[in-house]
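TL;DR need C-alpha cells for one chain.
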Amino acid sequence: MIDTKYENGAMVLTINRPKQRNALSTDMYLQLSEGLQAAHNNPECYSVIITGAGDHFTAGNDLADFQRQRVPGDSPALTFLRTLASVDVPVIAAVQGYAIGVGVTMLQHCDFVYADSTAVFSLPFVTLGLCPEGGSSILLERLVGPRKAAQWLLQAKRFDAAEALDAGLLTAISENGQALTDAQQAAALLGKQPVAALRLSKNMLREPGRLALMQAFDIERDRFQERLKSDEAQTAFKRFFER
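>> reply
TL;DR here they are.
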C-alpha cells in the first residue's frame, strides 16, 4: 500500500510493502497517482516526498502483474509516470536499499534525489527481455550521458550511490538512514519560497520537454507491451518465478 500524509506543506508518499521489498502493484501505482494529483491540485502544497518503508525504496514492478492480461492503452504504472512528469509541485525522492526498474526511472522525473550508501540501483529491462520505460529512452542519456546510459540500460549494470551521484542521477548522498531526513530538510527549504512562484518556475523548467516526453511514453508503452508477449520475456519471467 501507499501511506499518504500531508503536513507542513509537503505531501509524503511512502511505499509500504516491506516484505516484498516495496515492489509496486497495480493498486499502488494508482494510489501514487492519486497522491501526486492531490498535491498538484492543492495550491498550498510546496513539495512531494516519495520514499519507501523499511530497508528499501522499491524493488520495481511486481512481476506477477506482467503475467496478467493487459488491456490496450496506459497501464497504471504509466499513468503514475505521466502524472509524476506532469505535476508542477516539486518532487523529492529519498532512497535506500533497492531501487530497481521503475524505482530508477521515476527518479528521472524528480527534482531532488537523496540516497544513502545502502542504495543499489538497477535497470534490468533487457535482462528480462523487455525494453526501456519511464521515459528513459530519451531522458537517461540526457541526464547521465550516452556511455553511462548504455552501461545501465544495455548491460543492465548495477550501480551504487557514488556512481549515481557522479553521473548526475542524485542530488546528494545521505548518511546511512538519513535520506528521508535530507528530503524533509529540502522540503522545508522549498516551503520558505513563495508557493506560486515556486510552482511556476518548475513548470517553466519542465514544460519545454513535456511534449517529447509524452511521445516517448507512447512509443515505450507500445514496445513494452510487445516485449511482454515475447518468448524472451516469458522465459525470463519463468526463470524468476522458479527461483
